[in-house]
Prior knowledge:
The complex is a heterodimer.
Chain A: E1 4-7, E2 10-13, E3 19-25, E4 31-37, E5 44-50, E6 53-56, E7 64-67, E8 73-78, E9 87-94, E10 102-103, E11 107-111
Parallel strand pairs in A: 2-11
Antiparallel strand pairs in A: 1-3, 3-8, 4-5, 4-9, 5-6, 7-8, 9-10, 9-11
Chain B: E1 4-7, E2 10-14, E3 19-25, E4 31-37, E5 43-48, E6 52-56, E7 59-64, E8 69-74, E9 83-90, E10 94-96, E11 100-105
Amino acid sequence: DAMVIQNPRYQVTQFGKPVTLSCSQTLNHNVMYWYQQKSSQAPKLLFHYYDKDFNNEADTPDNFQSRRPNTSFCFLDIRSPGLGDAAMYLCATSRDVVFEQFFGPGTRLTVL
Amino acid sequence: GIQVEQSPPDLILQEGANSTLRCNFSDSVNNLQWFHQNPWGQLINLFYIPSGTKQNGRLSATTVATERYSLLYISSSQTTDSGVYFCAVERGKSTFGDGTTLTVKP
C-alpha cells in the first residue's frame, strides 16, 4: 500500500543535542510537509517542499531545518533542541498544495 | 492569515447518538479536509471537501464555501469514534482549527 512512513516513532534527545527525524513516502507526491503538534494543540505547519523548492513559514524558528534529498525522503533537523521543542512531529504529503494531504504516524520527541 | 474556528470544543455523547461538528473559516479557501486524530496521534483522513456534500458510511460532510463553513455529521456514534476531529484549510498555507474533542460513552 502507498503510504507515508516516519522514523523513529519515538525519539528521546538531550537538551541542545541535534536530532534528525525522517519521513519517506511511496505515493510519489510532489509536496512534503512538516508539522509540529504540541500537547492538546492543533498541528502547526513548519515548512514544506514543493519538489526541491523549500517554503519556510515566517514564524518557524531558525532552530528547525529541513532537507529533501529526493522525491521520497524528507528530513527534519532540530539543531539545538530546547524543552519547548518536545512535541509530536507530523509529516504529510500531497500531489499538489491544493490537493488532499496524507499524514504519517508521527514522531513523538522528548527533550530531557 | 486565515482564521479557522471549530465548535464545539468538547462534545460528550452516549453511544448511538448523532452529532454535528462545525468549522468556520474567515476567507475563501482552496481546499478543506476533515481528520480524526486517533489515540496514537495519527491523523486519519475523513473527507477532502472544498465544496459540496460527501458521505462515507456513518459519516458525512458538507462545505458551503460561499458562506465559509463546513459541517461534519456523525450518526449512530460508537465508542471508537472518540478522539479529536480537526478541520484544515489551505489558502497559501495549510491551517488547522483547534479541533473538537469527542467522547462517546458506552
